[in-house]
Amino acid sequence: MTQPRLFCFGLGYTGLRLARAAQAKGWRVAGTCRDASKAIALRCEGIDTYLFDGRSPLSDAAEALAGTTHLLCAVPPDAASDPVLRLHSKDIAALSATLTWLGLLSTTGVYGDCGGAWIDEAQPPRPATDDNRRRLAAERDWLALGVQLARPVSVLRLPGIYGPQGRSPIDALLAGRARRIVKPGHVFNRIHVDDLVAVLAAAMERDCSGDRNGPHLYNVCDDEPAPADEVLVYAANLLGMQPPPAEPFDTAALSDFARHFYAESRRIRNDRIKQELGIMLRYPSYREGLHAIAGAAATAPRDTGLRAGG
After folding, report:
1. CA 178, 196, 22 angle in degrees (round to 5)?
2. Mind listing the pLDDT tens digit for each residue in 141-156?
C-alpha cells in the first residue's frame, strides 16, 4: 500500500497541526509557508516545506507536489481569485495518478446573516461581503476541479477557530486586551482547533469511492453557539479575574472589520460531521475548550492572535 502523502497549502495554525497529526500516523507530509525561517524550522521536523506567497508559483511545483495523495488548501482567496488554483490548478490536475482527496478550508460567512436561526449545509449561501463572496467562488472552483478529476473534495465551512497558543479569550484576558462587547440576541459559533483537525483527518480517511464527484460540504463547529460576552465572562471566572466592563454594541468604538462580525448572526448545526464522519467532539462547547486552555495557560507559549467566532 502506498504511503499517504499530505500536501498542505498553508502551514498555519490549523494546517501545521494537521500536518503533525498526519506525520504521527506515519504519513509523509509537506506544505507551504511564507517565512523562510519558519520553512527551515519545519524541515527540521521532517516536513517538506516550500515558500509560497500567493503571488508567485512554487519554484518547482512538480517536485514539490510529487506523490501527493491528499491535498488541503488553507490559503484564503485574494482580491483576484484563489491563488492556489490560479497558479497551480494544472499541477494539481497532473497528480491524477496518486491524488485521492482534495480539501478546502472555507467559512460559515458564506451563509450571510440568518437572523440567529439554526441552519445546516442545505442553507443557500448568501454572502454579504466581498471576502465571503470570494470564499464561495473558491468553493465552487475547487468542487469543479474535483468533478474534472473525479476526486472527492471536502469543503469545510468554519466559524471562529480557537485553541491554545494565543487563540482564545483566556489569552486575551491575560494580555489585557479583551473587550466585553454586548449585543443582546447575538451569537457566535466556534470550533476548537483540535476538533477541527479531527474532522479534517476523518474527511481525509473517509472512503468516498461511492460518491467520488459529489460535493462534501461540512459545517465544522461545536454544539453550542453562544454570545461572545458570555464566553468572555466564563473565561474570566476560570482565571479568577474580573471580566472587563460591558460595552453596549451600539455605542462601542469598533473598527469596521470588528463591527462586521456582529452584523451577522446564525446558529450552525453540525450533525453532518457526526453522522457522515463519525466525529465525537472533544470540546462540545466553549466550556470544555476553555477549561483545557486555562489549565495549560501558566506554561503554554502564547502569541497575540485572537479570532472571533462566526
Report:
1. 125
2. 999 999 999 999 999 9
